[in-house]
Amino acid sequence: MHGSFSRGDTLNFTVAIGPDFKSGYVDALPVSNADVGATAAKIMGLTQKPKGTLIGRVMTEAMPNGATPQAYAGTVTSKPSANGLRTVLNFQRVGTQRYFDAAGFLGRTLGLEADGGKQKTAGK
User: Fold this and answer.
1) Cα angle at 89 between 51 and 32, to 5 degrees?
2) Mean pLDDT, the chain cut into blocks of 10 residues (124 residues total)
3) Which residue, 28, 7, 2, 1, is CA-closest to 110?
């Protein structure tokens, strides 16, 4: 099954090797499939024309002498329902790219600890 917002479905392992990438580097920044395509195009010297808003970012932090962009982590929480449950969304942002880490109910969704974690609140 793929497509839930639990951390079991949103945390994926990716590896890049070769002269265009740092050796032994572990990237702490979020990365999506769209970023893989943007990075491959940059390495190959190709210019992409955006189709919509999901264009990805070049993973410069993984390249030799590449800059590491600033990242921001946050949490958005809904108003409580009649039974008191709130939907929580943990996300990250690198530049203009948004990455959704986990969403659901605290203590009921993998990646959303019952104590709410130590994320900053971006909205209510």
Assistant:
1) 35
2) 72 88 94 91 91 88 95 95 94 93 90 64 40
3) 7
